[in-house]
Design goal:
By secondary structure, the chain is of the alpha/beta class. It has 13 helices and eight strands. About 40% of the residues lie in helices and about 10% in strands.
């Protein structure tokens, strides 16, 4: 197990990270792939109070995320969505970290964090309308406390840091969280955000889902050592955890959030996981990935791991699993209905809600666009 930190914190070892960036053994974990519980001096205290209800909710949301993800892929293949970024295999890091958040915390996701949005209370239409091209951003950011999914790789790290600095100046205890993949750590935006976050001790948590592949490039092209080892160079403590272990993900996020709320500044979490599906539905991973690798990671399935643990603890049984399956199917049906039943708004409504107050320049643009659209109607009438 590896913990990388600038100073000892909550019993974590203060030592350099070794190994390779894709190493799945040199990580902190609480659950083995077979679901057996293992102790960890740093992580254990942060999940000691998890109740059976909370554990079942954690499993439920992971299962719902996987079913939602499968529906998103199916809708894209059927021509109902323009694109979809699958998250199969990454449910533990997404749902686990989201379950640790407080209502006032604000998340800045990439385009793959479907489980984070589910944990923040997203509704069925929230997942699909933007990918269908009906909305710029399909959900109410104030309701979910979530920024729009970021397409520009790593840009959300700057947004999260800026939000955190604002919360800090407001005297708030709320924390910002930036989610991105291993590939984003090569972007300047991520590194610049970490400089600002460390310099101003901003209450922000950087969650790097190391899913082994940045589109078609393996993580070993991006780094020669584990990514968590970079954060201390910025003055940011980090944890490197098993991203397929939901309990470890909850614990690590609670550790990071508590540091931020105490005014101790940013933290970095590297969650070592795997993208079982394609990068997006426009990608063919068989062109660059060995099937044996996928098979090996399939055996480390995060949902099966948590399910095995909960069964062994007597927290989950067949009846409970049946309830989860029904809830997952119901969510998928609602997502499909919201997608197929979406009504395309009139083109000129793109100018709505751009400014809170009337704006002369925008009014002129709206009038010019209306005139442009009217020209097509005149041509059709001839």
């Amino acid at each position: 197990m590896t913990y990388t930190q600038t100073t000892p914190d909550h019993g974590a070892a203060d030592r350099a990270t070794a190994g390779t960036p894709g190493d799945v053994d040199d990580v902190a974990r609480l659950l083995e792939p077979d679901g057996s519980r293992v102790p960890d001096a740093t992580l254990d205290p942060w999940i000691a109070d998890l109740s059976p209800h909370e554990l079942r909710a954690l499993h439920r949301d992971m299962a719902l995320t996987r079913r939602l993800d499968a529906e998103g892929v199916a809708l894209q293949r059927q021509g109902q969505l323009a694109l979809w970024a699958p998250c199969r295999g990454q449910e533990a890091v997404q749902v686990g970290t989201a379950h640790a958040l407080a209502p006032g915390d604000f998340v800045f996701p990439s385009y793959r964090e479907h489980g984070v949005l589910l944990g923040r209370g997203a509704q069925p239409a929230d997942y699909v309308l933007a990918w269908r091209g009906e909305e710029h951003s399909a959900y109410d950011h104030a309701r979910l406390n979530a920024a729009p999914p970021q397409i520009i790789i790593g840009a959300q790290s700057l947004h999260a840091t800026g939000w955190a600095m604002g919360a800090q100046r407001d005297g708030s205890t709320d924390v910002a969280v930036a989610y991105y993949g291993d590939g984003a750590t090569s972007q300047g935006d991520v590194n610049e955000a970490m400089v600002f976050a460390a310099s101003f001790r901003a209450p922000v948590v950087f969650v790097c889902s190391n899913n082994q592949w940045a589109i078609s490039e393996p993580v070993t092209v991006q780094a020669t050592h584990p990514i968590a080892g970079r954060a201390p160079g910025f003055g940011i403590p980090s944890l490197r955890i098993d991203g397929n272990d939901a309990l470890a993900c909850v614990a690590a996020m609670r550790w990071a959030l508590e540091r931020a709320r105490r005014g101790e500044g940013p933290s970095f979490i590297e969650a070592v996981t795997y993208r079982l599906g394609p990068h997006t539905t426009s990608d063919d991973p068989t062109r660059y990935r060995d099937s044996a690798e996928v098979e090996a990671w399939t055996k480390r399935d995060p949902i099966a791991r948590l399910e095995a643990y909960l069964r062994a603890e007597g927290v989950l049984d067949d009846s409970g699993l049946d309830d989860v399956a029904r809830a997952a199917d119901a969510l998928a049906a609602e997502v499909r209905a919201a997608c197929i039943g979406a009504t395309t708004r009139a083109p000129e409504t793109m100018f709505d809600h751009v400014y809170a107050e009337p704006h002369a320049g925008l009014a002129r643009q709206r009038a010019e666009y209306a005139e442009y659209l009217a020209g097509f109607a005149q041509e059709e009438a001839r």
